[in-house]
Amino acid sequence: MLNILTEKNSIANRFIAELRDVKIQNDRMRFRKNIERLGQIFGYEISKSLDYEENDIETPLGVAKVSLHTNRLVIASILRAGLPLHHGLLSYFDSADNAFISAYRKHHKDGTFEINLEYVTCPDLEDSILILTDPMLATGASFAAALDVLYRHGNPKEIHLVTIIASTHGINFLKRTHPRCKIWTGAIDEELTAKSYIVPGLGDAGDLLYGEKLQE
Q1: What is the C-alpha separation between 40 and 89, in angstroms, rounded?
Q2: Which residues pair with 65 in a beta bridge?
Q3: pLDDT in tens, 70-91
Q4: For residues 119-136, average pLDDT
């Protein structure tokens, strides 16, 4: 299942526009905040797909019947760029468990790269609702590598992949390799360069969030 926020007009359009805008990107705090806001919107949309049961809630004047979700959620993020999305989701699913994966592109002189995973911390995923976040879905390799490692910690009931900008190539790759995942994205861009960067995209999300990193 593929869900695209910008298929319907909403305030999400403004947040995505500001993330792409080179004149606004220099404001790192605003860039982080806009990704966090989109995480909250994704959280609200995902909440509509959860399981619910009716509860009696005592008020000062009586009892109100309210339907509350019954699922155990685990929010997982690919470091470092996934952190603001993680915070946005966690602000809505505040009782969720959390997982973190360190993944990065290891570039070679011939222009190719591989995904290196160096750190994973994860709770039991058995029968949980897993939400995996990374703001950019280019080739899909980082998401796929993270999922393959997370599966070692149990079999989730459902898997939701959350990203801000996705490429058509990356979406098709994940549909083939991990067909059970539900993909949530802010927008889809068609072009992927020879170096696997999304065009028009928004640039390097990690650098825009936290500053440039030293290359190996």
Answers
A1: 5
A2: 56
A3: 999 999 999 888 899 999 999 9
A4: 95
The residue whose two tokens read 């995996």 is 132
- Taking the C-alpha atoms of residue 34 and residue 89, their distance in angstroms, rounded to an integer, is 13
* Pair 159, 127: CB distance under 8 Å: no
The residue type of 111 is: G
Q: Which amino acid is at 84?
A: P
Range from 45-49, 102-106, 108-112 that averages highest in pLDDT: 45-49
Q: Which residues of 116-155 are buried (b: 16+ CB within 10 A; e: fewer)?
A: eeeebebeebeebbbbbbbbbbbbbbbbbbbbeebeebbe
- Select from 196, 132, 141 the least CA-distant residue to 162: 132
Give the count of alpha carbons within 13 A of 168, CB side only: 7
Query: What is the third-level CATH fold of 2-210?
Result: Rossmann fold (3.40.50)
Which one, of 143, 157, 188, 133, lies nearest residue 2 by Cα? 188
- Location of structure tokens 């640039």: 203
What is the bridge-based pairing of β-strands 191-192 and 52-59?
unpaired
Q: Where are the domains of the chain?
A: 2-210
